[in-house]
Each structure stands twice: as structure tokens, then as C-alpha cells.
Amino acid sequence: MATISASKFNLSRVQNAVFTINGEKEISYFLTNFTLPGMSIGSVPIANPFKVHNEPGNTLTYEELTVSCIVSENFDNWKSTVDWLQTGSDGYSYRESDTKRMTRKDGSIVLLTNNGNRFGDIGIYNMFPTNISSISFDMQSAEPTPLTFDITLNYESYKINFDANAEI
After folding, report:
1. Which residues pair with 43 in a beta bridge?
2. Quick check: 155 and 125 in contact, CB under 8 A?
3. Where in the sequence is the domain holding 74, given as residue range(s)?
4. Of the chain's two ends, which shows fewer C-beta atoms within 10 Å, N or C?
5. How many domains does the chain have?
6. Where do the DSSP E strands lie in the chain?
């Protein structure tokens, strides 16, 4: 039976995560929450004279990515996301040509330790926003609470990279 040494087993505790979008380096999205999306290949039922059984599918599909972000002081990250979402439609008419297609972008979620050291990133490829949540302004809260909003993204794929030499 395998044993795990306590000194070699370290629970993964991400303290900070920053969402960046290629081409928008001046805007950062400090995350309060995100869930690494699941993926599936599905299955295909195959029948024979005796029974139906399933075989692995051949189309990889990803769940949507939703990230919860802290609104920057001047709302720059929220405004940038709204502008990006609005490239898909003017809100009043159908798209008249392919030149008004929504811009797809690459980006990453940078994972930081509690010491601020980068120990990994999740590269997200060919993504575009499908939803931006509302922002709730609570004036009666006893403690100052940062404003947050959620972005839901569809994308082509993602890849996780961990730095084996990072000091966690």
C-alpha cells in the first residue's frame, strides 16, 4: 500500500488569481472566484443483436467558464468587458455583415501563492463573453465590500501550466 509523506503532500491553496486578456495588458481582472470548467467527450450508443453498449465519443466539449471579478476603481475592467460583449451586436438590429463579428481573444488566469509568487496559469484560447452580470451597490453594509461582477465566457480550449520550480 502506498504511503504519502506529509512533507511532500501540499494542499493546493490558491490565494490570488488574476485574469488577463491578450491585447489588454493595462486592464487586470482580480478574481474573487472561478471554477475550472469540466470537459466531456460524451458517448455513442452502439447496437448489436444482443444489446446496446456505449463507446467513447470523439467530440470534446467544454463547460462555460464563469469568473467573478473585483470592479476596478474607475470601472475600467467592467467597461472593457461591456465593450467586448457589445461588439457582437448593436442591440437593435441583426448583424449586417461578417465584419461585425464578435472579437475572440486569448487570455489566462494567473495563479498566485499567498506570497504573491506565480505558480501556474490557465491559458484560455479563442474566448468570447456571453454574459456579464449585474453589479450590486449595497450602501447599508457595515463593512466596506468591493464591488464585483461575473463574466461568463465560451472558448475553444484551455491548457493548464504549473511551474514545478515555483516556491509555494
Report:
1. 56
2. yes
3. 16-43+53-90+98-162
4. N
5. 1
6. 16-21, 29-34, 39-40, 43-47, 52-56, 61-62, 65-70, 105-112, 118-132, 148-154, 157-162
Q: Is residue 6 part of a domain?
A: no
- Cα–Cα distance measured from residue 22 to residue 59, given in angstroms and rounded to the nearest whole number: 27
Instruction: Read off the C-alpha cell for 68.
Output: 467573478
* Cα dist from 114 to 5, 7, 15, whole Å: 23, 19, 5
Mean of pLDDT values over 96-124: 81
Please give the single-letter amino acid code of residue 47.
Answer: A
Residues 6+ apart with CB under 8 A from 85: 102, 129, 132
pLDDT band at 126; cut points 50, 70, 90: very high
Q: Which amino acid is at 162?
A: F
Residue 3 maps to a domain? no
Asked, for residue 86, whether it belongs to a domain, the answer is yes
> pTM higher than 0.90 for the full model?
no
Among 62, 64, 25, 22, which residue's Cα sits nearest to residue 41? 62
